Amino acid sequence: MKTKTTLFDGVLIAVLTVAACIMLLPYLWMVLSSLKSNMEIISATPTLLPEQPSFAGYETVFREAPFWRWLANSAVTSVLVTAATLFTSALAGYIFAKYEFPGKKVLFVLVLGTMMIPFQVIMIPTYLIISKLGLINHLAAVILPNLVSSYGVFLAKQFIEDIPKDLMEAARIDGAGELKVMWRIITPLIMPMLSALGIFTFMASWNNYLWPLIVLNDTDNMTVPLALVFFNGAHTVNYNVVMSAAVLITVPVIIVFLIFQKQFIKGLTMTGMK
Length: 274
Prior knowledge:
mainly alpha; 14 helices
């Protein structure tokens, strides 16, 4: 029995290792391509390793475009969207989980129903609303439509439902108000879930391409995913520059994940799904 278990573990590790290598190959290719010349990338006989590694692509990114400005724009939009999503998800999830009010089930079904609607369906109405507000070509046009997440509300509700009501009742007996109960009792207990949701939200906002492409026209207001379009010429593409920009875009997401990876994994294993 022990031999079978060991053999199974070995096979499983080997399969997972192969799968990990396959998933990491595009990222490895992207990093190595950023160190190649453009002619080397489009060569009929491409190679994995660059013949003469060069950082010329990275120099072009920072020389020919306000890339630091784009990084700042993406950081502002991603942080604000993430903070707003965590706040609204925790608050709405708490209300749906612990309060009874008329129409609660119907309202929650409507919230869940929005998860089934593709963004492309509401893209035109959302654009018209943003246009009427005069926010086209402003970062607010990227932030406002993403302040609330139906998935976040659902996740928070499922998690908070598992928290015993006795804890909140004890806090109320001690004189704590609802906001204090939310801040001092609920928030620390759902922190793993908030960390996981925060990473998902930050990554989605940072990598958001379609909506910023529609509502942002001014170069100074662009976010980093739009940099991939900026470096595409009308007839040619500097692939080494595009790859360099792609590497720079990916780095912040990796850093955020590495910082919060423990909370992220803990949150995924404690979501309270039923």
